[in-house]
Amino acid sequence: MNEIKKRIFVAGHNGMVGSAIVRQLSKVENIEIITRSRKELDLTNQQAVLEFFKVENIAQVYLAAAKVGGIVANSTYPADFIYENLMIQCNIIHSAHLANIQQLLFLGSSCIYPKLAEQPMAENALLTGTLEETNEPYAVAKIAGIKLCESYNRQYGRDYRSVMPTNLYGAHDNFHPENSHVIPALIRRFHEAKLNNDKEVVAWGSGKAMREFLYVDDMAAASIHVMELDKEIYDENTEPMLSHINVGTGVDCTIHELVETVAKVVGFKGQINFDISKPDGAPRKLMNVERLKSLGWESSVNLESGLTLSYQWFLKNQNKFRG
User: Fold this and answer.
1) Quick check: 170 and 217 in contact, CB under 8 A?
2) 16 labelled as ligand-binding?
3) Domain layout of the chain by residue ranges
4) Which of 276, 265, 248 has the alpha carbon at shortest distance from 306?
5) Mapped to the 3 state alphabet, what secondary structure does 75-129 carry?
6) Choosing a second label site near 252 at 20 to 30 A (CA), which of 1, 100, 119, 271?
């Protein structure tokens, strides 16, 4: 008799994080990965999401679906970012509950923490100060997602967990010239400058801001690790009103150092200048990852290795990013 496979829904499977989770889960036996494209299932449509969960017999949910972008995108489309992310989260979490799905993992963001939070940022820094202005709508939506999970756990006894990744990068990233995060934007800019034999590349900001970066396959591995933790162990290391877990490397660098490393990986030999009229964002964003380490997981891909893998993926898929 064939063993019944555990059906796992990965929301956002075409995105950078969701696709990495699918890659990792594909290595596990006795599970069936369930995915739906945006055309097949509009996650902002409450009725459609509820009907999906009621008929699909899902055992676990990875909520990796989100509208994401860098400083420019967040500043330009604040209404889109708060509305779409709130709708996606509310629909999936509530519908999962109504369908009696006990296990769910919500993926948030390090931007949930105050702009001037003590470094490195521990989980208990949440809601202790003012958020960074440029991505406040997105951050508010992600905070709401954490509190949704906590509230369903408290009221209904669900096992809905949350992980807060630091800045992610890797395969299936968004390399759009205006709406991407810093690493894919730099990879594309340096690559095109190299092809054009440009003598100079201009980077945004002063270069002094410090950031932490995590390769996306590490994030996927951490997500599965947290999802599969015994509930007693998870509960012992979290609190009902502080249940999220930071995911990162615990190591940061200046944007200046990042820019130089990307240039090295891509092979750009020209001049690098910084446009100090552009915003730096928060001065520093480093995650305290001691809680995750105590639960038995640490990152394994260093920055230069991860950037090399990202650039290799970009080269294989660059036709997708023309224009």
Assistant:
1) yes
2) yes
3) 6-321
4) 265
5) HHCHHHHHHHHHHHHHHHHHHHHHCCCCEEEEECCHHHCCCCCCCCECHHHCCCC
6) 271
109 annotated ligand binder: yes
**142 among annotated binding-site residues:** yes
Task: Tell me the pLDDT tens digit for each residue of 54-103.
Answer: 999 999 999 999 988 777 778 888 999 999 999 999 999 999 999 999 99
Say how many Å lie between the first and final Cα of the chain, rounded.
53
Q: Are 145 and 152 in contact (CB under 8 A)?
A: no
**Residue 12 annotated as lining a ligand binding site:** yes
Cα distance between residue 198 and residue 188, in whole Å: 13
Is 176 known to sit in a ligand binding site? no
CA nearest to 286, candidates 181, 213, 207, 212:
212
Active site residue 138: yes
CATH 1.10.287.370 fits 6-321, yes or no: no
| ω into 120 cis (within 30 of 0) | yes
Strands of the chain (E only): list them.
6-11, 31-34, 60-63, 103-107, 159-165, 167-169, 200-204, 210-211, 213-215, 245-247, 253-254, 271-275, 284-285
Overall pTM surpassing 0.85 (yes/no): yes
Chain centre to alpha carbon of residue 61: 16
Q: Is 17 known as a binding-site position?
A: yes
- Catalytic member of 62, 138, 160, 311: 138
d(CA 170, CA 16): 7
- The mean pLDDT of 296-318, rounded to a whole number, is 96
